[in-house]
């Protein structure tokens, strides 16, 4: 099973009123080698408790890396080798 399918099962357990321990026990019994970790189940339960019912994972923000950005930062560092990271950002 993939992560998305496990999220749907965790949501099912949440909506059925099972707590995280019961959900973990059930998932471990059904999928002993691939069940999500206890911390993952707790994180998703917390999300569901806040009313966020989507099972889609929020992806990491895309970093913007362009040749122009690289050249600009490179020039900044060459001009001042003691430049701090906070000054660059």
UniProtKB/TrEMBL annotation:
Domain Mos1 transposase HTH: residue ranges: 3-52
Gene3D superfamilies to which the protein is assigned, alphabetical: 1.10.10.1450
InterPro entries assigned: Mos1_HTH, Transposase-MT_Hybrid
Pfam families per the UniProt record, alphabetical: HTH_48 (PF17906)
Name recorded for this polypeptide: Mos1 transposase HTH domain-containing protein
Organism of derivation: Rhynchophorus ferrugineus
Lineage: Eukaryota, Metazoa, Ecdysozoa, Arthropoda, Hexapoda
């Amino acid at each position: 099973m993939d992560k998305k399918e496990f999220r749907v099962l965790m949501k099912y357990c949440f909506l059925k009123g099972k707590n995280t321990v019961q959900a973990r026990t059930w998932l471990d019994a059904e999928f002993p080698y691939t069940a999500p970790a206890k911390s993952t189940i707790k994180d998703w339960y917390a999300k569901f408790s806040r009313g966020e019912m989507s099972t889609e994972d929020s992806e990491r923000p895309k970093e913007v890396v362009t040749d122009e950005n690289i050249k600009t930062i490179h020039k900044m560092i060459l001009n001042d080798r003691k430049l701090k990271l906070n000054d660059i950002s």
